[in-house]
User: Fold this.
Amino acid sequence: MPSDPADRKLEIVTDVPDRAMVIFAHPDDAEIGSGGVVAKWIAAGCEVTYVLCTNGASGTADRALTPELLGGKRADEQRAAADAMGVKHVVMLGYPDGALEDTREFLGDIVHALRRHRPHTVFVHDPYRMSGFQHRDHRKAGIVTTDAVYPYARDHLHFSEHVTRHGLEPHKVRELWYWGMDQPNVIVDVTESIDRQIAALTRHESQMPGFNVPAGETIGARVKKNAAEHADGYGFQYGAVFRRLVARR
Assistant:
């Protein structure tokens, strides 16, 4: 029998913010991690910004592809996926794939994006996941974004050149949503938006062999299977789960 939602202890989130940002390590991570919710929120009028941290130039098993060719292809695929989702802004930081570091430069780039685009909600990889392998770039993107959200983007004396030289004001992100977490605490009904998530995900043609889809199954079927399992007992067909942190007012 379906489980009782009260036993699952996940809050069903229905509110849609005016602006959101997705910060992610590699092309395709945004669609995999948050695509259903982002598509839903964009359809409801939310302005979304993507911040892609690396060039994705190492993500292939095809030995005929050079990093230069792959990086260009993945950038094109990410722009196509963002267009399919209706994402308004795409920021590509261009760090080398596999070489993200917790540096002052990287932190400043994320703080700058937060202060420029001023999202209410930020999505990112959960850097604290313990159950299962996680790409090092995912951990670095998650931890640097967490630090950028609090306290660096908020306090004007951090990266004060953003204020004095670029005319950007400090910004307080209200909610940070992690995907890929061990223990989620919120769920969103993505029944009406999951097909847009899948359509965007399929723009990443160079990555299809690496998605490890079982023989006879499509990436769309796999995404829907996982989303149906999350939604079991909640009264809707497909769900997306996250670990949400809410800032104090």
